[in-house]
Amino acid sequence: MSSGLVSSNTPQNQSYRILFVCSDLEDVTLANSFGNNGDILYLGKDLPDDRSPLSDILYLSKYDEIWIPDLNVQWTEGGRLSEGEIGALTEYVQSGGVLVIGLNTYTQSWSRKLDALLGVRVLRLESPIEDGEDLDIVFNERVYPYNDTYQAVIIRPEGAKVIARYRNGNPAITLNSYGSGVAVLMTFNPVKAYVEGNPSFVDLYREVSSEALKERKNPPTISNTKKTLILLKRVILHPITLGLLVFILLEILAYLGLMPLGLTVFFAAPFIPFWGIIKRRKRCTSVLEIISMMRGVTLSELSNEMGEKVRRLKFCIAILKLKRKISILDISRLGGRDYLITLHGLESEGVAAWAVEMYPRLMERIALHPGVTILDLARSSNMPPYEVLQLLREMSRYGVVEIRKMPFDYEVYSTRALLRWFEV
Questions:
Q1: For residues 41 and 22, is the Cβ–Cβ distance under 8 A?
Q2: SS3 letters for 226-276?
Q3: 282 CB-near residues (< 8 Å, 6+ apart)
Q4: 253 vs 260, 271, 274, 309, 311, CA distance in Å?
Q5: In this predicted structure, what is the pLDDT of residue 280?
Q6: Measuring CA to CA, which residue among 384, 385, 370 is closest to residue 419?
Q7: Counting beta carbons within 10 angstroms of the beta carbon of residue 33, is it exposed (0 to 12), middle (13 to 18) or buried (19 or more)?
Q8: I need a labelling partner for 93 at 20 to 30 A (CA). Which of 25, 132, 255, 310 fits?
Q9: How far apart are CA 72 and CA 18, in angstroms?
């Protein structure tokens, strides 16, 4: 809803937009007393709106006035005004907006920044147990009876102008020029005063509203540069954008070989469609040639053969893996501390080639003595039988050896993948 508040002190046909921040039905009743003059941001715990606009300067700057008459933490989703919200409201006033707050909003969201914005200093809270005339409000020589039991806050103006007082002389309404805008403090409860007290208070509020609008220098104005920076910040900090930036960063780290090999393979996948234009294509061809020649080579051995650091080879290995040219095997259970790289589909030959180099005596005895037992292999290789059995079981998974169970032992036979290394 757009507002249409017209003041006798402002040009006719001039419309103003007002935002009412409400936390219960009484606040809404006050907002509706302005007719169609305001939008409502409802923060009641029963069915709250999104509260984030209170810290959004671009949203706030759409309004000429913002009223937060009774932000009671007991009924408000999110509680008191946060430091970020007070900062945004301060920026809003500084840019030319009018902010009007009441007793509970001020006392329950008090901060030094809020005092600076309002141009006042809090002294004490008056909580009479009986109604009297001391807190009746005098504005433009008219008296508005106020129920003292609704409380009032006693303040000392420090730059703010007092435009209404209580009968006892204390400030009832202050107006502080801040930047290009105006901040108004009603030291009483403006909602209770209208809803449960005197409906004529709405006339007082309209006049205060008009005076504040007259005092401001210009409507809320945000420069195009600042708008652009705010929007850019929102785009950058959006979860989707942040996720995309993190993904791009990980892609770069993968391309540079600064990630573990398994993660490098994962993040190399998006590069496959652009393989034809990737500069490392020639290096990858050399990697494939060495693997083809050696059948099975560890990452560190490949690094030594090519004379390049391991990290410079990871990306090529990942691409070749994704193109199903090679296989990457974790040989930690075979006693290795590295990855073994083999041709795809020839994993058994690669593991056999590595095993012949890693365990030469053991592999030779298996190849030249078909049916040799685990106990014989353990004695000849000076290894515990259990370790020999565990090692050969892992090799059998890759098709390097074949293990057959006997009543009290196991017989071990070499496969073609292992035997070829001992043929004359």
A1: yes
A2: HHHHHHHHHHHHCHHHHHHHHHHHHHHHHHCCCCCHHHHHHHHHHHHHHHH
A3: none
A4: 10, 13, 17, 15, 10
A5: 60
A6: 370
A7: middle
A8: 25
A9: 20
Q: What is the pairing mode between strands 98-101 and 181-186? A: parallel
The total number of residues shown for the chain amounts to: 424
The CATH class, in words, for 346-424 is mainly alpha
The C-alpha angle 128, 130, 133, rounded to 5 degrees, equals 85
- pLDDT of 264-279, one tens digit each? 998 888 878 776 666 5
Domains 240-345 and 346-424 share a fold: yes
Fold (topology level) of 18-226 = Rossmann fold (3.40.50)
Most confident of 117-131, 240-254, 273-287: 117-131
- pLDDT tens-digit readout, 301-327: 999 998 889 998 998 899 899 989 999
What DSSP string describes 339-355? EEEEETT-HHHHHHHHH
The whole-angstrom separation of Cα 56 and Cα 25 is 25
Given a cut of 60, whether residue 4 has pLDDT beyond it is no
CA distances from 134 to 46, 130, 190, 203 (A): 36, 11, 17, 21
pTM confidence score:
0.64
Q: Residue 263 corresponds to which amino acid?
A: L
Which pLDDT score, from 0 to 100, does residue 15 have?
Answer: 75
Domain boundaries of the chain, sorted by first residue: 18-226, 240-345, 346-424
CATH no. of 240-345: 1.10.10.10
